[in-house]
Write a structure and sequence with these properties.
The chain is α/β, with parallel strands linked by helices and 508 residues long. The chain has 4 domains: 10-123, 3-Layer(aba) Sandwich (Cobalt-precorrin-4 Transmethylase, domain 1), CATH 3.40.1010; 127-249, Methyltransferase, Cobalt-precorrin-4 Transmethylase, Domain 2 (2-Layer Sandwich), CATH 3.30.950; 261-290 and 425-506, Rossmann fold (3-Layer(aba) Sandwich); 295-421, 3-Layer(aba) Sandwich (Rossmann fold). It contains 18 helices and 22 strands. It has helices at residues 26-34, 72-84, 103-112, 125-132, 164-169, 183-192, 222-229, 246-249, 268-280, 299-307, 320-333, 350-357, 373-383, 402-409, 430-439, 449-457, 473-481, 495-506; strands at residues 10-15, 37-40, 57-60, 63-64, 67-68, 88-93, 116-120, 146-150, 173-177, 200-205, 213-218, 235-239, 261-264, 284-287, 291-295, 314-317, 344-347, 390-396, 413-424, 443-446, 467-470, 488-489. The strands form 5 sheets. The protein has a 5-stranded parallel β-sheet with strand order 3-2-6-1-7, sandwiched between helices. The chain has a 5-stranded mixed β-sheet with strand order 8-9-12-10-11, sandwiched between helices. The chain is elongated.
């Protein structure tokens, strides 16, 4: 920690990890959450930015070989200036901030300026990259020593500070970072100084990301393989017998959806569950929110119905968003959960039911199989006589009238509480749109008719060969109505059912 500062500002120099969002440390996450300003690098996973509080300023200073958004001296000046203004600045750097990064230089500038700073270590790709490729950097049978060096030294230095003679003869595993462009020079230096040509070598590109690639060779042939494959940075290289362990320890790249790029089109708030389940199976997920939810236009009318919720026999929820909107209003009106009274609760599907259960409330009715409006109406028909039963249906502004019409036809008295509305997402998907256009995709998933319609309104052509997956028949109908083919439809109309259907499709 530096000496005390006359301002309340502080700069956190945070290692953001190698790429997998789950490898961000808890301390790093806390620093993002409290930041007034985020200053982040090219290798920092954009997923980390979601932890920022509303209104946090975001400044991209990404650097990659030959392409600097800001030179290092300007980055130093920027974080000093922001911290001196009394702001909490979180500087996110890929991997670890001081392992062949410029974190020490940035810390020195902050110290010289007399402002507070903290260095928050991160998981380095030097260890995580090989591990995700099934290569332990140390192993009782192969290596009891690890040497880490950089393949990208200060270009202003007249000579290399690397002693290749010692590196070539050193025991154990050698790992180098930022050296793909110099792989031929580095391997030749190893061979020149007596390293065995047959020594195994692995290069891991975009380590721990869903698009990870691994190239295996030897000191004698890896440079030629890199050139033939067009293998480019960012990558971590491993030299040593530990590379032979990959054959049995390659867990990350052997998952069922590995190598598949899948687009998720739910709202940003809802996308996480589907994205996580697909990513756990190995998919490279592009979260492309096409819609977002906002409060209903008439909040007074909605509030009055929520206030009177205890007077109904049933409350029906047909979406997780409806549950969230209802209880947001409920909590403004009441300070005791018991104010909901003895009303019974029905939900359209398991996802919606989980939201209710999170409030420590029981769900009294759920369709057996069809987790759509028609299935819910059938469940009520099988459950009880609905004559003169008072029902409060919590719904979106634009939704099918299946529930109201079906229950009214059975004699129920239905009031409709319009809780929220769905609008197009126009700001939180620009990076994802760029990825889709530049990288393409193997599959796109739709979880509602509105995600279909709003995706098509983006006027983005589906990549050639991209398959279409639907959560259920209502969504499939919207897909087909818009001239697209449904390649996959979930048999069980919920997120786990969709994930299962997608996984089975790619097993064919």
């Amino acid at each position: 920690m530096a000496s005390s500062s006359p301002t309340p500002g502080v700069c956190y120099l945070v290692g953001a990890g190698p790429g997998d969002p789950g490898l961000l440390t808890l301390k790093g996450k806390e620093c993002i959450e409290v930041a007034d300003v985020l200053v982040y690098d090219y290798l920092c996973n954009p997923e980390h930015l979601r932890y920022a509080k509303p209104g946090t300023e975001r400044i991209y200073v990404g650097k990659k070989a030959g392409d600097h958004t800001l030179p290092q001296d300007q980055i130093n000046a920027l974080i000093v200036k922001l911290t001196k203004e009394g702001k909490t600045v979180t500087r996110l750097k890929g991997g670890d901030p001081v392992l062949f990064g410029r974190g020490a230089e940035e810390a020195a500038e902050l110290h010289e300026a007399g402002v507070r700073f903290e260095i928050v270590p991160g998981i380095t790709s030097a260890i995580a990259g090989p591990a995700y490729a099934g290569i332990p950097v140390t192993h009782r049978s192969h290596a009891s020593m690890l040497t880490i060096f950089t393949g990208h030294e200060d270009p202003t230095k007249p000579d290399t500070s690397l002693d290749y003679a010692k590196l070539a003869q050193a025991d154990g595993t050698k790992v180098f970072l930022m050296g793909v462009e110099r792989i031929e020079e580095i391997t030749q230096q190893f061979l020149k100084h007596g390293a065995k040509p047959e020594t195994p070598v692995a290069l891991v590109r975009w380590a721990t990301h869903g698009c990870q690639q691994t190239l295996i060779g030897t000191l004698a042939d890896i440079a030629a393989k890199v050139k033939a494959a067009g293998f480019k940075a960012p990558a971590v290289a491993v030299i040593g017998d530990v590379v032979t362990e990959r054959e049995q320890l390659n867990w990350f790249e052997s998952r069922p959806l590995f190598g598949k790029k899948i687009v998720v089109t739910r709202t940003r708030q809802q996308a996480g569950v589907l994205s996580r389940q697909l990513a756990q199976l190995g998919a490279d997920v592009i979260e492309l929110p096409t819609i977002r939810t906002v409060p209903a236009t008439d909040q007074i009318a909605f509030g009055q119905l929520v206030q009177d919720c205890h007077t109904y026999d049933w409350i029906i929820f047909t979406s997780p968003n409806g549950v969230d909107a209802f209880f947001t209003m409920f909590d403004k009106l009441y300070n005791d959960a018991r104010c909901i009274g003895g009303v019974r609760i029905a939900c359209v599907g398991p996802g919606t039911a989980e939201k209710v259960k999170a409030r420590h409330l029981a769900v009294d009715l759920l369709p057996d199989k069809e987790f759509v409006a028609e299935g819910l109406v059938k469940a009520f028909k099988d459950h009880q006589n609905m004559e003169h039963v008072r029902v409060l249906w919590v719904r979106a502004e634009e939704t099918r009238e299946i529930v109201a019409n079906g229950l009214t036809g059975m004699g129920a008295i239905v009031d409709e509480a319009v809780a929220y509305r769905t609008i197009p997402e126009t700001e939180d998907n620009l990076e994802a749109l760029a990825r889709l256009k530049n990288e393409g995709a193997d599959m796109i998933t739709f979880t509602s008719a509105s995600t279909v319609e709003h995706f098509l309104n983006l006027k983005v052509a589906l990549p050639e060969g991209c398959k279409v997956a639907s959560i259920g028949p209502v969504t499939s109908a919207a897909i087909k109505a818009n001239g697209l083919k449904v390649d996959v439809e979930a048999k069980t109309n919920n997120i786990p059912g969709l994930v299962t259907a997608v996984s089975k499709f790619w097993k064919k």
